[in-house]
Amino acid sequence: MSSIAFIGLGNMGAPMALNLVKAGHALTVFDLSPNAVRQLTDAGARAAGSAADAVKGADIVITMLPASKHVEGVYLEQDLLGQIGAGTLVIDCSTIAPDSARKVAQAAQARGLEMIDAPVSGGTGGAAAGTLTFIVGGPQAALERARPVLEKMGKNIFHAGDAGAGQVAKICNNMLLGILMAGTAEALALGVANGLDPKVLSDIVAKSSGRNWATELYNPWPGVMEHAPASKGYAGGFGVDLMLKDLGLAAESALSSRSAIPLGELARNLYSLHSNGGSGGLDFSSIVNLYASERD
Ligand code: NAD
């Protein structure tokens, strides 16, 4: 069993870290929020006073932070890489800009540390169930070292390519997710405005050609799926501002590669309007509230 430092215990990091504790690994954890740390210490993890304290003596360091600035802030600006012992494997599971992932990976390599980017898909439900998909960028040998630990948190592990490639694939996936969630919300609002029951319409779509991850597992309409964030006041889940970040990363990737992403840009504008209206902290399926006039 490995000694693992886990930094970033939010909606995703906490359930992922809990699965590692349950698998018998010795976890030392750190988060800026004491409440986030408490759930892990209750389960048997050791709390560290800082990220630098957490990585002392670790075989593996895992980070699950919101965005590029946090990952670069921790590893480079706070020089966490300089505190990590030789031979330690570094795994960043956050969704960040591919260039940031490459920059941190190069800095890790320069210090003799193996590092992979391993962003995830599957949502908070997948994180709790240990069924996440890991999308890895970096050396194959480092992925093989990480695999036994990733398997305790996920079911599917893909090697997308070199450092940063995991992030490119993840950004493409999330652009599609943002478009599909907005489209699902729009279709449900249209049906309800024309007299349909949202549950009946959702059941029909889930078995018809419009089905997608939202209609199968994450319906945006309140009351349709008991366990979806929509039925819990859009609390927890995947924040609107995190989706907005990912659609921004897609826009940056499109600019740098001269790609056209008209639907991705439209989705980014929809989530931006929604966030600016005060919903940035809600789950992203609350985009359905942009169509609220049809619901009233
Ligand atoms: P979150 O905002 O719930 O959690 C982030 C955590 O990081 C918070 O607890 C915060 O206190 C902590 N943190 C921030 N800066 C820190 C620092 N310097 N040191 C220590 N801790 C720090 O976010 P989340 O939903 O868990 O998402 C994390 C990452 O995973 C994001 O990049 C997101 O895009 C990605 N992701 C999220 C989901 C989802 O469904 N929520 C799914 C797939 C991928």
TrEMBL record:
Pathway membership, UniProt: Amino-acid degradation; L-valine degradation
Q: Which SUPFAM superfamilies match?
A: 6-phosphogluconate dehydrogenase C-terminal domain-like, NAD(P)-binding Rossmann-fold domains
Looking up InterPro entries in the UniProt record yields:
3-OH-isobutyrate_DH-rel_CS, 6-PGluconate_DH-like_C_sf, 6PGD_dom2, 6PGDH_NADP-bd, HIBADH, HIBADH-like_NADP-bd, HIBADH-related, NAD(P)-bd_dom_sf
Where would I find the 3-hydroxyisobutyrate dehydrogenase-like NAD-binding domain in this sequence? 164-291
PANTHER family (UniProt xref): 3-HYDROXYISOBUTYRATE DEHYDROGENASE, MITOCHONDRIAL (PTHR22981:SF7), 3-HYDROXYISOBUTYRATE DEHYDROGENASE-RELATED (PTHR22981)
Name of the molecule in the record: 3-hydroxyisobutyrate dehydrogenase
Check the record and name the Pfam families matching this protein. Answer: NAD_binding_11 (PF14833), NAD_binding_2 (PF03446)
Reactions catalysed according to its record: 3-hydroxy-2-methylpropanoate + NAD(+) = 2-methyl-3-oxopropanoate + NADH + H(+)
**Cross-referenced NCBIfam families, in alphabetical order?**
HIBADH (TIGR01692)
The active site consists of K170
| Limits of the 6-phosphogluconate dehydrogenase NADP-binding domain | 3-161
The species this protein belongs to is Bordetella trematum
Q: Which family does it belong to?
A: Belongs to the HIBADH-related family.
What superkingdom does the record give? Answer: Bacteria
What is an annotated GO biological process for this record, any one? L-valine catabolic process
What EC numbers are recorded for this enzyme? 1.1.1.31
User: Which UniProt keywords are given for this protein, alphabetically ordered?
Assistant: Branched-chain amino acid catabolism, NAD, Oxidoreductase
- What would be an example GO MF term here? NADP binding
